[in-house]
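>> received
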Amino acid sequence: LIAEAIGPAFKDDLDRIAEIAPFADDAAFRSRFAAVRRANKVVLARVVAERLGVSLDPSSLFDVHIKRIHEYKRQLLNILDTIALYSEMRARPSEAWVPRVKIFAGKAAAGYHQAKLVIKLANDVARAVNNDPCVNERLKVVFLTNYNVSLAEEIIPAADLSEQISTAGMEASGTGNMKLALNGALTIGTLDGANIEIQERVGAGNVFIFGLTAAEVAERHRFGIDATESIKASPVLDETLKSLAAGNFSPDDRARYNGLVDGLRHFDNFMVCADFEAYRAAQRSVDELWRDQDAWWRRAILNTAGMGWFSSDRTILDYAREIWRAEPGTR
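>> returned
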């Protein structure tokens, strides 16, 4: 739709945001954009129903975390926030919660025990949440197995929120966040890797940046990574960890996550506890924006438009000019 509106070529500077702004402010255009995205969410909901037998409401916010399972990529931070949100929904069922679907996918290395434990936890939390009538359609959690390119093709166009929450200073400059942002998903993430460039190109107001910077993470490592004080400062995190340690999400093995909890308390190497409250605050900002659908879709349109700079055409042209000192020509 955006290419149709402003033509096939995007400018290399921030003028492209100004060019698309009239379309982002056009109610009819926003409606068409939202309709395309909803159709993609219907497709993904069908995939989830077929694979997992879980019914999803396409009107919910689709919150997507699709990456290799690794401690520094902090799927665990997302899961802990999910548990906290679930507990809050149960405690205050009459509150006007934003309906949300937490979508996880990814693979762990064969011998990576901790990563596999995180996958187990995601599935344990999903089982508890999805079978609890107290939260009804307000919260769903799904972990899609056998993640591959074909599955990514179903997930990425349906994502509303893109989780790029790796510990600052530890993420390589990958392209998964670019694919999600190009398709209109707003990014929630740390100021690290390609998130920095995405924020520069789509505008700081169109991303949700949170947490410690790379320099602050390094400083924490220098002075110790015990999380006792971080947990003490966050009653919600404390209760969440106690719930895990009590086996509330693993009734078949109540000690399953004791080691994980102990590790977080005393060896917060990846700043899960240190960034927990900042992440929660960013997620509540996501909720507030989602409640204003016009504002959400306006930002999503600007987000997609701003991502034009990351096109392969621009990349190859810059490489030719800056590395090979060559200009396009004809034969």
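>> Residues 102 and 275 are 19 Å apart (CA to CA).
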